Amino acid sequence: MTLLSVHHITRYRYNKPARFGEYRLMFRPRDSHDLRLIESRLEISPQARVRWLHGVFSNSVAIASFDGSADELVFDSRIRIEDFGFDDPEFQISETARCYPFDYDRDEVADLESCMRRQDEDPDRKVAKWAQAFLQDRDRVDTQDLLVDMTRGINHSFAYERSYRVGAQAPAETLDLGRRSCRDLTLLMMSAVRALGFAARFVSGYLYDPSSHDPSSHDPSSHDPSGYDLGSEREPPSDEPPGSTLQGAGETHA
Description:
Elements: E1 2-19, E2 23-25, E3 35-45, E4 49-54, E5 60-65, E6 69-83, E7 99-100, H1 106-116, H2 126-132, E8 141-142, H3 143-157, E9 159-160, H4 171-177, E10 179-180, H5 182-195, E11 244-248
Parallel strand pairs: 1-11, 9-10
Antiparallel strand pairs: 1-6, 2-5, 3-6, 4-5, 7-8
Helix pairs in contact: 2-5, 4-5
């Protein structure tokens, strides 16, 4: 079990006071067999009216509404969780799905159908052909090896770049350009595996690297944004609860 503290700040600054619409916030994780939520705090500036609801995937969603205007908008989220995830990189895959191609259980297809349907236009089948190349003309392949090869292919073949445009880039366009933001590369992966018949959907979260808390791998010149030297023996700030710390700053990874 690992105790984690997540402090995520998203800050918008404007040249002049602006009025804000309604915001949908998904900072609060949901409890499960491998994660227990201990504490959750959300502070918003300027002050907002907040109501909570469950999204279509049963996620906790906060709806924030504002009165008046301001030249800065800040969402400050702090959560503490207990993580019971496994360390084994070999994911537990059903015996019937260990080799690709495979068929989903008939009872699951109705629920998975929307996650199997491609939502991007690919008239020249660029994405489908890119995905099929990983099969290497084999009739059957190990499912996990196939997915790992595709993620490594994206990592090695595409360059990351920041994007501030609204929405996401079409997967076929990402293939042509050979670069894009994390959300666009994620959509490429989703489209590619869907082209092979897999069910896939977009999720967001945080990445935790245990080595960041290992003094032996610490670079003394590196400090996290809060000023707490993650690799030193020094105690964290007095207002920070015990546990490993993850920092978020408005970036979204999937």
